[in-house]
Amino acid sequence: MRWFFLIFTILVVAAVFGLRLRGDKFSQPPIEIFNDMDRQYKLKTQKPSEFFADGMGSRRPIEGTVPMGFHLPASKTEGIKSTPLDFSVGDSYMDTGLVGDNYGKGFPEGINVDEAFLARGEERYQIFCTACHGDSGNGKGIVSKYWGVPPTKPSREQSNSDEGYQQKLAAYLAEVESYSGIPPTANLVDPRVAAFPEGQIYHTIKNGKGLMGAYGAMIPVQDRWAITAYVRALQSATKTN
Amino acid sequence: MGNIFPTWTNWIAVKVLICLGALGTAVVALAWYSWTPKYTRVGYMPQQPIPFDHSLHAGQLGMDCRYCHSFVENSSHSNLPTAELCWNCHGPGKVKSDSPKLELLRQAMDVNDENYTGEPIKWVQIHETPDYAYFNHSAHVNRGVSCVECHGRVDQMPVVYHAKSLSMGFCLDCHRAPEKHLRPLDQITNLAWEADDVDREKFYEELSAVKGVSAQKLKEADSNKDWTQELLGKHLKEGWAVNPPQQCASCHR
User: Fold this and answer.
1) Structure pTM?
2) Beta strands in A92-225 (DSSP E)
């Protein structure tokens, strides 16, 4: 009898604590009993679906239709106002950053660059651009360490002798060479980019450029302009320093 | 006629009762311990098709959660990033583009890859509310509830696991006392944030703009209180008129 109780106690303790402790890591999906209400047979965001032959729950837009958050291109949409969550606004400068075939200058009508707009731009810049271009836009974000930091071209004024300048220049050129064809992350406060019209910065965000991928699918139209405004602010802050 | 039952049988009823009692207790204890989301879900750590590391990308590289989960502020669903977004950094000639760990990414994105399929990456979902309960990310992250309250320190996880139970009791604990969890809106994705990190001068300035009381008055009213999460949360709760629902129909709609 004593043995019975002993074994019984051990079994109970083993059953309670032996299977797995609370919080232990495991990789099998959690057990769900009678889960027909928990997991209903319906279409869910970013989930596959057996209902469609190709198994894709997220459907591609049917030809001739426009998904929510997008607007019909061309003249039909003239005069529409963009809301903060729109990913396209017709065919206007606001949407493309282009005037004809050239990058447009200045901010489009309907974009009001004030303090709140700049603050929004700063926040969005820090989410989407800092990783590569750095907080101050100098192209030395953390990822550039793994990718390539833009060398800064030495200027004659910074060196006290012509010889020193030549040495620095040679080092600079060697550094550029060592990127083996990969252009480094662009320096956004460089005079080259500072000379870009607003439309070109906007266009770069929307469509990418060279090695930089497109961010148009993640950043709505108004936020793209807000980031553009903030990049402008960074550039003018660097210029006055 | 002798005794049919030997003397040891005198105690059998008691012994059976004790055993049944012990068995009952054991079953109750087992159920108490393991029939709860605290046991069935917490710690769920499935293997992902690509060994994506949050502690590297969000922790070490300091990428904001919204870089990838970009619509968490606008939508009930917090989206997983597209393969295209990974490709922006891991594309040809970029970061670790030849890594064997990224094989599936190349199959999804690289048209020149011999194994190109164009198939999306099939991430395994970890957190999954039952379909009879309604949950909305944007309702929370725009009201000062940080990711860390419901997902734990994701920025320190090499592999994401289910850190909180996300049971109904868990939801209600916070809905009844949100002041223990609220924080300023610009710190939502800063999982390491603590109430002590707040610049109090600035906090009172902003609070006075919301409440319409001068910053000086607010500060004086708090002068002999400790600066704690509760105090800060109480201010935010009153300032923003936060009132999380507790009626059944708000979550079971």
Assistant:
1) 0.90
2) 98-99, 102-103
| Cβ–Cβ under 8 Å, residues B45 and B159 | yes
Q: Give the closest of B42, B45, B66 to A22, CB-based.
A: B42
* Alpha-carbon gap, residue A69 to A111, rounded angstroms: 18
CA distance linking residue A105 with residue A108, whole number of Å: 9
For chain A positions 80-139, those within 8 Å of chain B (CB to CB) are: 85, 123, 126-128, 130-131
Q: What is the pLDDT of residue B23?
A: 86
What are the two backbone dihedrals, phi and then psi, of residue A103, each rounded to the nearest 5 degrees?
Answer: -65, 140
If we measure between CA atoms, which residue out of B129, B128, B164, B125 comes closest to residue B146? B164
Number of helices (H), then strands (E), in chain B: 13, 0
Could you tell me what percent of chain A has a pLDDT over 90?
Answer: 27
B170 touches chain A (CB under 8 A): no
Chain A contact probe: residue of B39, B65, B168 with most A CBs at under 10 A: B39
- Give DSSP secondary structure letters for B189-227: T-TT--GGGS-HHHHHHHHHHHH-S-HHHHHHHTTTS--
As a whole number of angstroms, the distance between CA A166 and CA A191 comes to 22
The verdict on a CB contact (< 8 Å) between A19 and B34 is yes
Of B26, B43, B186, the CB nearest to A23: B43
The CA dihedral of B91, B97, B103, B106, to the nearest 10 degrees, is 20
CA nearest B142: which of B82, B71, B193? B71
- ipTM score assigned to the predicted complex: 0.87
**Any B CB within 8 A of A233 CB:** no
Tell me how far the alpha carbon of residue B11 is from its chain's centroid. Answer: 54
Phi-psi region of A160 (alpha: psi -120 to 50; beta: other; left: phi over 0): alpha
